[in-house]
Design brief:
Strand order of the largest sheet of chain A: 1-2
Number of domains of chain B: 1
Largest sheet of chain A: 2 strands, antiparallel
CATH architecture of chain B: 2-Layer Sandwich
Radius of gyration of chain A: 25 Å
Strand content of chain A: under 5%
Strand order of the largest sheet of chain B: 2-5-1-6
CATH topology of chain B: Alpha-Beta Plaits
Number of strands of chain A: 2
CATH class of chain B: Alpha Beta
Largest sheet of chain B: 4 strands, antiparallel
Oligomer: heterodimer
Helix content of chain A: 55-70%
Shape of chain A: elongated
Order of helices and strands of chain B: EHEEEEHE
Number of helices of chain A: 19
Helix content of chain B: 25-40%
Structural class of chain B: alpha+beta
Number of strands of chain B: 6
Distance between the termini of chain A: 66 Å
Order of helices and strands of chain A: HHHHHHHHHHHEEHHHHHHHH
Distance between the termini of chain B: 11 Å
Strand content of chain B: 25-35%
Largest interface: A-B, 12 and 14 residues
């Protein structure tokens, strides 16, 4: 009994791991996402039936792709007999075999560009990417983004209908494509990561299924586009953030960078992240290309993860990198994060003047930063009000716990 | 190949733009059209007269009812359109980007229903 449920879990794990590959390959071959998904689901049912007696095949991904391909051909034959859709039947002559590397890998790259096409609504891009490449179920995606399952199912169905009707292609865009296609893909992956890293709301402060999936997609992209600095930058940024994940929480409370137990950081992820950042720096030096935002953010995280004691942080380096980031992406949020570094270098009063000039009063981190600066300046009454505002603006339970503790430790000016 | 409708919408004041002011847009659009006509993408282009020249016909009932004016009173009206043929949406978007630059307006790209 235990053995059969272990096997079932193993089949599910393989299916999830191979899903993107199988669907991407079938989508290219048959030019239809619904056929690809239905055939993949049928292949899973056959695997559940046969693998317990036949054993797991040596190349399960190849087995699933071949089996799903045969089911898709059966379906097209049935439909072409019924509807005389001979055009569809013509496609079955393309009997491209499954290969673990090469063209099949390219299929997944093609599909990620389709899923993240700028002609699709941003929330649909995220959902499609997680569904088709991540192999997450509609229910899992709905839960992760806290929307009803029917809403998420509709969102995905509508996006797939548009891909089909408007002929959004399954291919890697040309260099001279009119829109920033790679940027759109990176934005989707980073959004998935961030939603997992500090969940906007819900009971869990971190959703590891989302951070893990974003890193997996980042690694796939890196494999295909090894010379793209921003691809390496995004992967490094995610790895260096992920390396601190367990140290970021203690007793259900968020722990800020300066108070984290650095022995709890994941050295393997840090080393991998640092190697990628060094590679980016070398490429920038060799080509004098201006690094994009992900590379700069990765470099900032590399500085933070470079010391075993928060007090040894090279803050002038951090501020210089934020200056560079602000030149590329001049947003108030970048200015806010830069101000946090300025506080360490030039003092909380200088930082507070910057923070006060930013129009971010609806943003919880703006209130939390102001609260901390006011606390350090000994302005406890004002700090208390800001902690209250920050608590009101966040829905993350771990962040609320952290802010409440900080507020409770304020020196009472009346005492 | 798929056919796409590339449509340009604008306020009715567009039709009141003095000729000398609109001249660069006409020239750029004309040049774009001439270039498009030399490619396989070309199907049709048409600019429309002002919305007040429209007549709406309702033949769904027993009597045919003819009304002066456009189907719907809105702030913006269809001003002109292209019908193009393209391999996929990416190719259509590339042409739409040039069309938008030439005519100085936003361009909606919409596929024709398939066979």
């Amino acid at each position: 009994m235990t053995q059969s449920s272990d096997l079932r879990a193993e089949i599910d794990r393989i299916y999830r791991e191979e899903y993107g590959r199988v669907v991407a390959s079938l989508a290219r071959r048959f030019g239809d996402l619904d056929i690809a998904e239905d055939a993949a689901a049928e292949a899973l049912l056959i695997a559940i039936e046969r693998w317990p007696s036949d054993g797991i095949p040596p190349n399960p991904g190849g087995w699933l792709t071949t089996t799903a391909g045969n089911r898709a051909i059966d379906r097209i034959r049935r439909e072409s007999l019924r509807d005389t859709k001979h055009k569809a039947a013509m496609m079955i002559t393309d009997d491209t075999p499954h290969e673990p590397t090469g063209p099949v890998e390219d299929d997944r790259l093609r599909l990620v560009f389709t899923c993240c096409h700028p002609a699709l609504a941003p929330e649909a891009r995220v959902a499609l990417t997680l569904r088709l490449l991540g192999g997450l179920t509609v229910e899992e995606i709905a839960r992760a983004f806290l929307v009803p399952e029917t809403t998420m199912a509709q969102r995905i169905t509508r996006a797939k209908a548009k891909i089909k009707a408007a002929h959004i292609p399954y291919r890697v865009p040309e260099r001279d494509d009119v829109t920033d296609r790679l940027g759109a893909v990176l934005a989707v992956i980073y959004l998935v990561f961030n939603e997992g890293y500090l969940a906007g709301s819900g009971a869990d402060p971190v959703r590891t299924e989302l951070t893990a999936e974003a890193i997996r997609l980042g690694r796939i992209l890196r494999q295909f586009l090894p010379d793209e600095g921003e691809v390496a930058g995004l992967l490094a940024l995610m790895l260096l953030s992920e390396s601190r994940r367990t140290a970021r929480f203690a007793g259900g409370e968020l722990v800020t960078l300066d108070e984290q137990d650095r022995s709890g950081w994941d050295r393997t992820l840090i080393d991998e992240g640092h190697t990628l950042v060094r590679e980016c720096l070398a490429r920038v030096a060799a080509t004098s290309a201006r690094p994009g935002p992900y590379q700069i953010l990765a470099a900032i995280n590399a500085v933070h993860t470079d010391t075993n004691d928060a007090r040894d942080t090279d803050w002038s380096q951090v501020v210089a990198l934020y200056d560079q980031l602000y030149a590329v992406t001049p947003t108030p949020i970048v200015a806010l994060n830069r101000a946090v570094a300025v506080a360490e270098l030039d003092g909380p009063d200088v930082a507070l003047a910057i923070v006060d000039s930013l129009d971010l009063s609806g943003y919880h981190a703006w209130h939390a930063t102001r609260a901390d600066l006011l606390r350090r300046l000994g302005r406890s009454a004002e700090a208390r009000g800001e902690y209250d505002a920050a608590i009101a603006a966040t829905e993350n339970p771990a962040e609320t716990a952290y802010l409440a503790r900080r507020r409770a430790h304020l020196v009472d000016p009346g005492a | 190949m798929t056919q796409y409708l590339l449509s340009v919408h604008g306020p009715s004041s567009v039709w009141d733009t003095p000729l000398e002011e609109a001249q660069p847009m006409y020239e750029a659009t004309g040049k774009f059209n001439d270039e498009l006509k030399t490619t396989d993408a070309w199907v049709f282009v048409g600019g429309l007269e002002r919305p007040e020249t429209a007549t709406t016909v309702d033949g769904t009932g027993n009597d045919v009812i003819v009304t002066d004016g456009p189907y719907m009173e809105t702030k913006e009206y269809l001003g002109g359109f292209w019908v193009i043929e393209a391999a996929d949406l990416d190719a259509a978007l590339k042409i739409a980007a040039e069309a938008s630059k030439a005519c100085g307006g936003k361009v909606e790209v919409r596929p024709f229903a398939g066979e």
